[in-house]
Design brief:
It contains ten helices and ten strands. Strand 6, helix 7 and strand 7 form a beta-alpha-beta unit. With about 280 residues, it is α/β, with parallel strands linked by helices. The protein has two domains: about 140 residues, 3-Layer(aba) Sandwich (Cobalt-precorrin-4 Transmethylase, domain 1), CATH 3.40.1010; about 130 residues, Tetrapyrrole methylase, C-terminal domain (Methyltransferase, Cobalt-precorrin-4 Transmethylase, Domain 2, 2-Layer Sandwich), CATH 3.30.950.10. It starts with a helix and ends with a helix. The protein is about 30% helix and about 15% strand. The structure holds S-adenosyl-L-homocysteine. S-adenosyl-L-homocysteine binds next to helix 6, strand 8 and strand 10.
Length: about 280
Amino acid sequence: MMTDTAAHTPDTATGPALRPAGVDYPEFLPGWVWLVGAGPGDPGLLTLYALQALQQADVIVYDALVDDRILALAPPATERLYAGKRGGRPSAKQADISETLVALARSGRRVLRLKGGDPFVFGRGAEECQFLHAHGIPFRVVSGITAGIGGLAAAGIPATVRETNAAITFITGHAANGEVPDSLNWNALAHASPVLVFYMGLKHLPVIVDRLVAAGRSADTPAAAVAEATTPRQRVVTATLGTLVEAIRTAGLHPPAIVVVGEVVSLRQIIAAGARQAGP
Ligand code: SAH
């Protein structure tokens, strides 16, 4: 019989159920950095390699968007270093984070660099790889489910549907200087991409909406925001491109959130209902 404590202690390091056979697990060698995507939040959406890395790392350097339930999958003794960059908490500079990774690897530890979603989708993963490479540190990259896909699915919004979109575009609403990126061709986005998925889009959403509508995208296009997707706090607001800003304000939605614009949003009623029926 399990004791109370056992029932509440996450099964780590050795649990066979967490390490299914049939997977070619690479050895996590001392002195290496593994750059791993943690997915949007729900630990059930982790990859097996991410789980392996959590169980074997000596130190975890994690971002603000990494869910606590995921960090809890590492043994309690594993060192955890917060390297987040969100408002309100002291933010680490990118150069400092990269230096830290190099220093930890050189000290002979197994370093897990854990990032929300996928490390290469608006996650600065490439910059860290370049830095590690330049300093001769061996590294491995493990993809994760990006919020723009996993977050939509959790809200019952399909990323593509054959009848509505043969393309989908991922866009950041926030450039390095804190503004809407200059490099975006709004005319092309408004006309050429049937589905637009914005990361970091809430702050500048009024500007984004204005630019899309001014470029000719119909204000009646279905649109949605999914906040804290795949966490117990997930909230979804659906509206149209023209009414989304107000709907988000009324609902009191806060970042992190994915904003999606396109006909796929209208399928949500059916798919979200089906997902609920299939649930517990
Ligand atoms: N590398 C991450 C994205 C980092 S940029 C990925 O692949 O998902 C940070 C943005 O990601 C947030 O501003 C938000 O737009 C989005 N995001 C990340 N996690 C999210 C979540 N659980 N719910 C909604 N949006 C999320």
